[in-house]
Design goal:
The chain is built from 17 helices and two strands. By secondary structure, the chain is an all-alpha fold. The longest helix has about 50 residues, at about 15-65. It has helices at about 15-65, 70, 75-90, 95-105, 115-130, 135-155, 160-180, 180-190, 200-220, 240-270, 275-290, 300-310, 320-330, 340-355, 360-375, 380-390, 395-410, and strands at about 195-200, 430. It is globular, with a radius of gyration of 24 Å.
Length: about 425
């Protein structure tokens, strides 16, 4: 008689809740280590490209400033060339910053790397021939495109990887160009949605920003700083002038964003052919640039910034004319960005208000420098740290107060049309984790 067969039963205990939690924490740590390593690579490449772009741009500006009649009259032709390049080879890459906003929200699958040479070359052309434009758009697009490319080709088990790496690249671009790494981190993490802060991207953005700033500095891109020793307190003598200035900065910054959006729509409606559109605007800019102080309002506006902080001649109407020239240039389709012109608009406006009220010119110019930028971009924290990193942390309380007031009075407008809004309510700050 055969003996009964023996069966072996193996009991596999299900993972305990503690084990699952530990694995989740471990995976999160590994993922963030990978993000940080990728941030270093993005920062190195972006910092190098920022340095190349920024140094060439300064040389281009020097050439134009010393030979205005050789270049400014041909801005219309330059505009035709820029649009032809985009129309023939670039296609959707001319949408610039809007591509980054859509990519960060997973509304598009990729951003073509060819955006980088197109936006770089077209910005050099814009500045060489006297367009009134900035440079941050190029830097942020360079970094954001590299971040997007990294996310597309290195698949991470994180649903927010595209958003995090795109923001990381944007921070690297801003930090590498302006060499204000802390401000760059907050700009990249708060610009996508007004009133929201992307905390998940803070650490990789910080690493990429500092890396890019270090690399671009090592390669010879200088940082703009202003050293001053001003004693200022807000009391019953200074309170009213300070508030008038801060409110003015908010109105001017918000007004800039509002008028820019309106002018873009107006140009598209009146001049539907884009070639006529950009050529006509280029001709108008050329004519008035030469008539009004022979190119004073062309380019970045660093000449006006230097005049505001280094005892140069600042006219009462400088901020208004730079305001108008920049809006027409950008609305017409020329490339570059708006931030440095906004710095110059704010600095000259601050200097004028200081002269009219008897306040310290350098301090009020610094307040305008940061607050008009904050109001126009609808950001709050970034402009405070730009002020601290450029002018000194000892003035941080004044930057804080001026930026808060300007933020309240900007009408919830932004130069970035794809920026999500809190629908007029600046009272909420949501931190996305």
């Amino acid at each position: 008689m055969s003996s009964p067969k023996k069966t072996i039963t193996i009991n596999i205990e299900p993972k305990t809740q503690t084990t699952q939690k530990n694995e989740k924490i471990f995976n999160r740590i590994i993922t963030f280590i990978v993000f940080c390593l990728l941030a270093v690579g993005i920062g190195i490449i972006t910092g190098g490209l920022d340095a190349l772009f920024g140094i060439v741009l300064l040389k281009v500006t020097y050439i134009r400033e010393n030979n205005p009649f050789w270049f400014i009259p041909f801005l219309a032709a330059a505009g035709l060339l820029i649009y032809y390049i985009y129309d023939r080879f670039g296609k959707e890459t001319q949408n610039g910053m809007s591509l980054l906003f859509d990519r960060a929200r997973n509304k598009r699958s990729e951003i073509k790397l060819r955006l980088i040479p197109f936006v770089t070359l077209s910005t050099w052309i814009t500045h060489l021939f006297g367009g009134s434009a900035g440079r941050e758009g190029v830097a942020v697009q360079i970094g954001g495109t590299l971040g997007s490319f990294t996310a597309r080709n290195i698949h991470l088990e994180n649903k927010n990887s595209v958003r995090i790496l795109t923001i990381t690249g944007m921070a690297a671009g801003f930090g590498g160009l302006f060499r204000t790494p802390i401000a760059a981190v907050f700009f990249a993490t708060e610009v996508l949605s007004a009133g929201y802060l992307e905390v998940t991207a803070l650490l990789p953005a910080l690493i990429a920003s500092y890396t890019a700033s270090t690399v671009s500095g090592y390669l010879g891109l200088e940082k703009f700083t202003v050293s001053s020793d001003i004693t200022f307190t807000i009391d019953y003598h200074t309170f009213l002038p300070f508030c008038i200035a801060a409110v003015s900065f908010g109105i001017v910054g918000g007004g800039f964003a509002l008028l820019l959006r309106f002018t873009k729509k107006l140009f598209a409606k009146i001049l539907k052919n884009p070639y006529i559109h950009i050529a006509s605007a280029g001709a108008i800019i050329s004519l008035f640039s030469l008539l009004l102080y022979c190119g004073r309002y062309s380019g970045l506006g660093t000449n006006l910034i230097n005049a505001s902080f280094r005892d140069g001649e600042v006219y009462y109407w400088d901020f208004a004319l730079k305001f108008l020239f920049t809006i027409i240039t950008i609305a017409a389709g020329f490339q570059g960005g708006e931030v440095t012109p906004l710095f110059s608009i704010g600095a000259t406006l601050g200097a004028v208000i200081a002269a009219l009220t008897g306040m310290p010119v350098v301090l009020f110019a610094a307040l305008g420098y940061v607050a008009v930028f904050g109001a126009a971009t609808n950001t709050l924290i970034a402009p405070m740290f730009i002020g601290a990193e450029v002018f000194g942390y000892q003035y941080m309380p004044f930057f804080f107060a001026a930026c808060v007031i300007a933020y309240i009075f900007n009408g919830d407008n932004s130069i970035y049309t794809k920026q999500r809004s809190t629908h007029g309510s600046h009272s909420m700050l949501k931190i996305n984790k």
